[in-house]
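Running this now, will post back.
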Amino acid sequence: MNIEQYREYCISKKGVTEDAPFDDTSLVFRIGGKIFVLLDLEEMRINLKCDPEKAIRIREEYPVVQTGYHMNKKHWNTVPLNLISEDLLKEWTDHSYDLVFEKLPQTIKMELSK
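Update: finished.
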């Protein structure tokens, strides 16, 4: 999956916003103002939020997946875009989105669900 396809997938999700708060080589995708994907345009990798137990299983099964670069190592994985299948990238991105959405305040969730 190339960067543009991945970007399109992320912004197609309900309520997602995109910005570049850190530098011009990193895109951030948010739901309700909270980050669920950090995309490194230079390194062709993404940081995804993940359930801690699932994060460990993924890293064990897919050695190219590392602990979250510059993120909480327990809750984030760094995934190379070009070494993981499109189906897995979408599955893991959906998981990240769902985790962040579930932690949002009820009022924001209701607003995003309209």
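The chain has a mean pLDDT of 95. More later if anyone needs it.
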